[in-house]
Write a structure and sequence with these properties.
- The protein has one domain.
- The chain is built from 4 helices and no strands.
- It is mainly α.
- Helix content is 47%, strand content 0%.
- GO terms for molecular function: damaged DNA binding; DNA helicase activity.
Length: 102
């Protein structure tokens, strides 16, 4: 939907200008999994204006054709929380190692 796409595009633009890390919260694991799956598929449409002047492409040039998530990965490492406590602890440790948090 447009809301999911817009949230992904917002995170993409923030990832280009925010130093260090960004944390995105979701209401449930299922909702997060659905959104992340759709971001693998969704691409920023041509001609959609950018919010930030520091966005890596202009509204007049075509965006990279990867999905939203792949484009975010060009700017930031992505760590996705799972329901497994040990995996989540490892992801948080890695996030802190790369300067994403305290």
């Amino acid at each position: 939907t447009a809301v999911i796409r817009n949230y992904g595009n917002l995170l993409l633009e923030l990832s280009a200008v925010v130093p260090d890390g960004i944390v995105a919260f979701f209401t449930s694991y299922q909702y997060m999994e659905n959104i992340v799956a759709s971001w693998y598929e969704q691409v920023r449409p041509q001609g959609v204006p950018r919010v930030s002047p520091n966005c890596p492409w202009s509204p007049l040039t075509p965006p990279p054709r990867q999905g939203i998530l792949e484009n975010i990965q060009r700017n930031k490492l992505i760590f996705i929380e799972t329901q497994d406590g040990a995996e989540t602890s490892m992801a948080l440790e890695k996030y802190q190692e790369v300067g994403g948090g305290p």
